Amino acid sequence: MAAATGNAPTAGEYIIHHLQHLKIGSGFWTVHLDSIFWSIVTGVLGCWFLYSVARRVQAGVPGRMQAAVEFLVEMVDAQAKGIVHNAHSRKMVAPLALTVFIWIFLMNFMDLIPVDLLPWLADKLGVHYQRVVPTADLSITMALSITVLLICIFYNVKIKGAGGWVHELFSAPFGNHFVLWPFNFLMQIIEFVAKTVSHGMRLFGNMYAGELIFMLIALMGGAFFTAVGLPLALGHVVAGTAWAIFHILIITLQAFVFMMLTLVYVGQAHDAH
Q1: Are 226 and 232 contacting, i.e. CB atoms less than 8 angstroms apart?
Q2: Which of 261, 139, 253, 269 is nearest to 195 (CA)?
Q3: Catalytic residue among 52, 56, 176, 198
Q4: 273 residues of the chain, pLDDT tens digit each
Q5: Inter-residue contact 217 to 209 (CB < 8 Å)
Q6: Which of 6, 21, 94, 115 could form a disulfide with 32 if both were Cys (CB 3.0 to 4.6 A apart)?
Q7: Taking a C-beta distance cutoff of 8 angstroms, is the pair 156, 165 a contact?
Q8: Alpha-carbon distance 83 to 77, whole Å?
Q9: Among the residues of the chain, which ranges form H helices?
Q10: Is-contact 239 114, C-beta < 8 A?
């Protein structure tokens, strides 16, 4: 991106430009096309990865990829068994948790791609704004958390019945007395809203911070390499590598935390108060 003066952009202009979405609409109805595109791409890649491994499953001594996926499946299944005690529900919840983990991991993984690479390629195609980390977009993480909320409501109704769940909304946590019904209902709504907002905000906050750090590292590395007469792009890669190695742990942990909270919230939907 060039500054308005035709010179190289300042640090502020660089960051502001990289934080702009490719979007249509305005206000509440703004649609971030880049976030949607990369969410779909990573989702398709995750499905293709699991399908390709499942298609090559063999008895006896498994390959490295099959062993890694089997370890992941067993880990998720063990967590699901410890949280969701309904065996029938786990037939859907465990694969759901595995899908959530892999999909969010892949969306987070986009943060490890050199910060200027994909925006530069998009710019060559005439697309001047491009953010490639879907989980650094609040609209994506909140959409994920709202989906989890809808799944929880589904299991509340399925396990307890519509009447049983409505009764629980008005009788817990303070007790089944008509004087307490408004307070019980208010507390239940606050709980649902708080869990949903914190679920999405936690993932967004961590990934947004990581995206900003990569931009700052790219700026510092590029400035240093340019000062000593080396290519700017080389500075971006070298400076970002150290943080990327550490960031691998963060993107994995955030995917795991989101998956575990999904299991916890769905498990709570099975419990009666």
Answers
A1: yes
A2: 261
A3: 198
A4: 433 344 567 778 888 888 999 999 988 889 999 999 999 999 999 999 999 988 888 777 778 888 889 999 999 999 999 999 999 999 999 999 999 999 999 999 999 888 888 988 999 999 999 999 999 999 999 999 999 999 999 999 999 999 999 999 999 889 888 899 999 999 999 999 999 999 999 999 999 999 888 888 777 765 555 555 555 555 566 666 777 888 899 999 999 999 999 999 999 998 876
A5: no
A6: 21
A7: yes
A8: 10
A9: 11-18, 33-55, 64-83, 87-109, 117-124, 138-171, 181-227, 232-270
A10: no
What pLDDT score was predicted for residue 224?
A: 53
Catalytic residue among 86, 139, 171, 202: 202
Is 64 assigned a catalytic role?
A: no
Q: Where are the domains of the chain?
A: 11-24+31-270
Task: Mention every residue, 6+ apart, whose C-beta is less than 8 A from residue 190.
Answer: none
For residues 263 and 97, give the distance between their C-alpha atoms in angstroms, rounded to a whole number: 7
Compute the distance between CA of residue 96 and CA of residue 181 in angstroms, rounded to an integer.
Answer: 34
Return the axis-axis angle of helices 232-270 and 138-171, rounded to nearest 10°: 10
192 half-sphere exposure, CB direction, 13 A CA radius = 16
What pLDDT shows up at residue 233? Answer: 56
Rounded to the nearest 10°, the torsion over CA 74, 78, 84, 90 is 20
Tell which residue, 140, 139, 109, has the closest CA to residue 214: 109
> Cα torsion for 149, 154, 158, 161, to the nearest 10°?
80
What is the Cα 185 distance to its own chain's centre? 30
Secondary structure letter of residue 230 according to DSSP: -
Residue type, 134: P
